[in-house]
Specification:
elongated; about 180 residues; membrane; transmembrane helix; mainly alpha; DUF3995 domain-containing protein; transmembrane; 2 strands
Length: about 180
């Protein structure tokens, strides 16, 4: 993360628009259903899989991976909130060495924009979930898992919209019009 030494922004950024704040918080919600489904698998619930299909998920390594993936996805979604909160402009004081310093806008914009693009590509096929064969799932499981994963289609676009809002607030300076 690139930082500047001053503890507060030289010129305060405008307040984020209400839609951006809502979109940032919505990112954490769209990730939640799939994460909760994976946690059900970790806890031993077949969660839509046939007995044979569930065996691959009933190993220690698979459980660690699914739990880690669920936590990392939710943490990544929570980072989007930093684009509409003060800690996205000034590093919180409790962080060693860099706490209290300004966050350079592009240090937040570039990773957020790349993340938004990657998420959009990763989840682009989810609307067609039901067109792919899932022999290792029950018909009801196939339906439910498809529904639980549908919100992920919004993760990338929501992150992109919030990132653009952050960029406009922090980087684009509107020149006053002489009239």
């Amino acid at each position: 993360m690139s930082i500047q030494p001053s503890a507060t922004p030289a010129t305060p950024s405008p307040t984020p628009p209400r839609w951006a704040v809502r979109a940032a918080h919505l990112t954490t919600v769209v990730v939640l259903p799939s994460g909760l489904w994976r946690i059900a698998l970790v806890l031993g619930c077949p969660a839509g899989y046939t007995e044979t299909g569930f065996r691959t998920f009933d190993t220690f390594g698979a459980k660690v991976w699914m739990l880690t993936l669920s936590v990392l996805c939710e943490l990544a979604a929570l980072l989007t909130i930093g684009l509409v909160r003060p800690w996205g402009e000034v590093v919180p004081h409790w962080i060693p060495l860099i706490g209290g310093r300004r966050v350079r806008p592009m240090a937040a914009v570039v990773p957020a924009a790349l993340g938004a693009a990657i998420l959009t590509v990763i989840w682009a096929d989810v609307p067609w979930w039901w067109t792919y064969a899932h022999e290792d799932m029950t018909p009801t499981g196939n339906l439910v898992v498809g529904i639980l994963y549908q919100p992920l289609v919004l993760w990338g676009p929501l992150t992109a919209a919030v990132t653009i809002s952050y960029y406009r607030r922090r980087c684009v300076r509107v020149q006053p019009v002489d009239g």
